[in-house]
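Example 3.2
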Amino acid sequence: MSTVLRLEERPPIIAAVVRRHVEDAAFYWSQLDGSIDSPQLGAERASQFAALLTAHLEGVRAGKEAAAAMAQQALERWRKPGEAFVACVAALSLEGEGRIAAIEAVLRQVRLRPDLLVRGAVSALAWASPAATRRWLATVTSLSDPIDLVIALRGSVLVRHTVADLEAFVVHASPHVRAAACRCADAAMIPALQRLCADEALAVRAESCIALARLLDAEADEHRMAAASRLWQCVAEQVAYRERASGWDLVQADRRLNRWVRHLAQLAPIGHPGMRELVQRLPPRVGLTAMLHHGDIALLDLVVHRMADDEQARWAGWVWHCLTGVDLLAEGLALDEPPLDLDARMTQGRRDADLGLVLPDRDRVAAHPVNRLRLGDGRRALLGRPAGERELKQIVDPKADLPQGLRFVAANALNRIQSEAELNIRARPDVQRSTLQSLGIS
């Protein structure tokens, strides 16, 4: 005779199992968070990571108060965005007064290190249960701390939540809140965004320009180009600031610069004479990122030039492959790997080698006929082909199993030229499936 286990007789939570869920969820989120620059992590493997993250988050939710306490302890100990992500998801999943206290405990830690931890908390709003996220976002007008408001505003973008009283946030005293509000703006906010283009804070000016370029339709191309021109100025100011920065400030300066450059690179028309000058002024790695997102084959000579830099050679080789579609190994364009010096210091070039990126033979690459390829008609290129809507959809299609770094470039370009749905390659699996289906990618 079978035994029915009543709810009150459920076995107690096993602390070791719950802790494993908490730790592994932080690990898999960190892998996905960094995947947008990954040249090796393919779509299939990333999908497996996302499925494992989903499973571990179910374990975190099942662990209730015990899981929330463990996640909070991990956040206070390690102070990393992955731990902030898990602690926030765990707190949001609770009920009653315990939920309020747990969320506040997480936010206290995030407020201490916002530059590092905010993105983990923002991502948590997209991965928590939709009901739990909506419930917290409904309190946005009662939030007073600027960091809490930044999390709520940026999280609203990820879950497509309409923010009430957005007009109050675009004139908020905190520039961080104003910048975050720009990301939420809709077409009704265009006049406010145009005023923010002259804001005293550099980040607010840049984010307002990015928002304007997104919201202005094709008929307002002149105004979009004006926004792009102002964003160009913001990038120049950020480059100057970066040259004076060091330590953690430099890390954050690079993160912000990369975001703005990715947007600017896709706004700038192919053949714009200033693009060549811009990428030469940018830090080498950022310049390569700009050329990858811009997609102008005429700039391949600058990519090849970067192959002479030991620290950037492998990354330049990967960018060249993404733009041309030519496989360095298959075409005999790679050098033999040098002996590995285990005592050498860790450098950017060494990290690229550890990722599996090959060392290009610069002279042979420079002589390859693909460098003379011209698409014409101002068209962008990826993998040696015009980066039109059909080609971009082929690249982001998970069945193609292309690297996340390349899919991220294609997704950004696709989001700019179509309005059916915005694809986020780091979103929850169910959200990604829904978005891909709406784009006609099954």
